[in-house]
Amino acid sequence: MNKEIEQFLAVPGKKVSLDDFSTTYKGENNKEKGIQEMEEIKTRLSALQETLYAADSHSVLILFQAMDAAGKDSAIQHVMSGLNPQGCQVYSFKTPTSEEYDHDFLWRHYKALPERGRIGIHNRSHYENVLVCKVHPEYVLNEKLPGYDSVQKIDKTFWKRRYESIRNFEKHLSDNGTVIVKIFLHVSKEEQKQRFLDRIEDRAKNWKFSSADISERGLWKDYMKAYEEAIEETSTAQAPWYIVPADKKWYARLTISHILEDVFKKMDLKFPVLASAELEKLDEIRKQLMKEQ
């Protein structure tokens, strides 16, 4: 693994404290150099994506989680811009619909999984069920789960079972050829404040801001605790979490690019090799084409 990204890995089985992970780190990079390097990685990722499609043996699922204004949308836009859009599918998960509430909490996420040969990108994910729902346990009541008709009944055992469901879900996907990459964009409260102010002061960005964002900001400590526990409980060898410093958007995008390149290289995919009979047919077809006037 690239040493630069290894430091951002949430080691499976190890306690997670977000205070141990910087939000401002940029290594020895500068913005100009970082952007240039990212463009070079995009070219390599494009070639790796073609191999993924041709091999048709794996899919890649990339999950983005973060606090508001951490840069999820722009990271997806910039990092994925060099990929073939025919081989990608992006889902942004909002509040569940009544139909989705009538199924288990993983149902709508299972429906959005990429097929073999493709890359799936989930902007927010099944982790909302142990993040926003952990901070607002009253949301769980909308699921009408047997035995959980009050917030008081949503206890530690409930959350342990939900983490277990997520681990089992991701293990099943991994066992069946889906490579999972989980990105937490780690932004500071101070940087979020500045980005909120930018959205308020720039009329063209007003649409990005909601008064509800301020209410959630007031629960910052609760969210950090929920993220720490979720990452600690679900960072596994098959589906690790990366805690990416996000105060500098260009560095977050560069780091994500490095992570994806590392993941693809480890997959060691190859273009399919045709059988001898098929190669002979191709040779005959080539000869026929060469004879055409």
Strand content: 5-15%
The CATH architecture term is: 3-Layer(aba) Sandwich
User: Judging from the principal axes of the Cα atoms, what is the shape?
Assistant: globular
Major β-sheet annotation: 6 strands, mixed
Rg, please?
Answer: 22 Å
Keyphrases for this structure?
293 residues, Rossmann fold, 6 strands, globular, transferase, P-loop_NTPase, Polyphosphate:nucleotide phosphotransferase, PPK2 family, Polyphosphate_phosphotransfera
Task: Walk me through the structure.
With 293 residues, the protein is an alpha/beta fold. The chain contains 12 helices and 6 strands. It is globular. The mean pLDDT is 94. Pfam families: PPK2 (PF03976). Keywords: Kinase, Transferase. This is Polyphosphate:nucleotide phosphotransferase, PPK2 family.
Compose a concise summary of this entry.
By secondary structure, the chain is an alpha/beta fold. The protein has helices at residues 3-6, 31-55, 72-79, 98-101, 107-111, 132-135, 156-175, 189-201, 211-217, 220-234, 249-267, 276-291, and strands at residues 9-10, 59-66, 88-92, 119-123, 178-186, 241-245. It has one domain: 3-Layer(aba) Sandwich (Rossmann fold), CATH 3.40.50.300.
Could you outline the blueprint of secondary structure elements for this entry?
Layout: H1 3-6, E1 9-10, H2 31-55, E2 59-66, H3 72-79, E3 88-92, H4 98-101, H5 107-111, E4 119-123, H6 132-135, H7 156-175, E5 178-186, H8 189-201, H9 211-217, H10 220-234, E6 241-245, H11 249-267, H12 276-291
Parallel strand pairs: 2-4, 2-5, 3-4, 5-6
Antiparallel strand pairs: 1-6
Helix pairs in contact: 2-11, 3-11
